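User: Some background: our group keeps a shared notebook of sequences we're curious about, and every so often someone picks one and asks for a predicted structure to add to the entry. Today it's my turn. The entry only has the sequence so far, pasted here. Could you supply the structure so I can complete it?
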Amino acid sequence: MTVFIVTATFNRVDHLHTFISQLQSQKSVENLKFILVDSGSTDGSIQLIQSMMKSDSRFELVTGKNNWWWARAAHEGLAKALHRATADDIIVLLNDDVRIAEDFIEIGCQLLRQHPKSIWGSALRVDTGETELAVMRDLVDFSVYALQNVNLPEPYEQDLVSGRGAFFPVSVFSDGANIRYKKLPHYLADYDLSSQAKKLGYSLLGSSKLFVASGSEFGNSHSRNMTLSWKIFATQSAFRLVSQYHFWHSESGFSKGRTAALLLWFRLRALIMRTSKHNC
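Assistant: Of course. Here's the predicted structure to add to the notebook entry:
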């Protein structure tokens, strides 16, 4: 069995040093392949990865363009892994800005082998003390949220799985699941992938034993101080309406018109409520 770890990166050399060290420290898993997909970094990330390839044959580099964003980069990394993977192999999507324990890959593989037709998503331990467990969806207002600081049965089920640390059997991709990078170029593409797997009959599971750690600032935090037009239209925005439309249209099963109308109403209502709070 080979475990392929696929990571998308772009101008994150400050994170890559620590991240690469964590990958090399993983124990009890013999056949590991680290596929790093760089979307045209200019900060020395590519040179760092190339240097690691010379001293550690487990590392591989896929170079791309700076308009790939997360989804296209992850798609290309998956394609490279699947080209060589066999039915017994495991593929892991892992972000480069998280911290993992030495037994992270070992635990995830064990859980997946115990529950063959499943996808495993990692819990998130934040430096401020919170622990985010199951990722849930809410069709009442088209929102995604995580259950925080709660006791859940082991293993617990979740509605969606984040790509920050997710374990997939190869079969889910041969069954038809894929990253829809054209419609979901950045945010929501990982949730959409897990939703496809669920529709194919795979369980979406999690365990408090399988976790990644991170600071309190996440990838979408830079969106907070951007203009409203940037939030609505920018490809890298977590609030991009086109991406949200494609995701919630697939997730809800509603007609295109109803999905668009509800989405606009929910987001307009949220904007009005935030504005009202600021004026109080």
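Suggested note for the entry: The mean pLDDT is 93. The radius of gyration is 19 Å.
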